Amino acid sequence: MRAPSRIASSSCSLATLTSDVLDRWLEAVLATPGLTALRDPAEARRVLLDDALAGLELVRRFEGSIVDVGSGGGTPGIPLAASLPEREVTLVEAVRRKAEFLERWTRELPNLHVVWGRAEEQRTETYGVAVAKALAHPPVAAEWCLPLVEEGGVVILWVGPSADAEAVSRVAERVAGELAESPAGFLVLRKTGPTPPGFPRRSGVAKKRPLA
Ligand SMILES: C[S@@+](CC[C@H](N)C(=O)[O-])C[C@H]1O[C@@H](n2cnc3c(N)ncnc32)[C@H](O)[C@@H]1O
Fold it and tell me: Which atom of ligand 1 is nearest to the CA of 117?
């Protein structure tokens, strides 16, 4: 009879710790200039935390380490790392000041790692899951994220209702990917083979000359 109560109390304290670190992270994002234009704490919680966690069950379906590309102030990567302590989560962020802010949270979340750099400059075929929220137009985000995942892995893009899934699908086909069944608010791309020669294109080229 004792074991279940120990399990219940340890999972309860894990939930408390998770919510404590996420509350402090959210406060720090709002208090740090240049990380978000949001000022209202309730709106920030909705956009930075609740929207990130809306993808939690989707991410959980796919195996492997996770990379959040263009993490900014840390979303969706920090909420995912706090909620999935058994998964390694890497935040890739191009702006040094933001990467320095993110680095602070690696002391709180042992499964969190931070890389200061651009997606196009990272080692390819490295992660099981790449996630991105508000990184760039979805076709550009797809081109940047697909090379980072191994064959069989997935890219999960948080998208708005006007996202052009057809354009993302055309880009995915160029970068060894295919559009998979995706719940509303997300586009899921499966990596079907190794990254083709010529990808990733040089830094900035995907934005200047989008594939679709
Ligand atoms: C609009 S912000 C979104 C941040 C966060 N994901 C969110 O939803 O609040 C886009 C972020 O992506 C970063 N970024 C843009 N292009 C990038 C690239 N090629 N590689 C890595 N980071 C990039 C920017 O520095 C910026 O912090």
Answer: 21
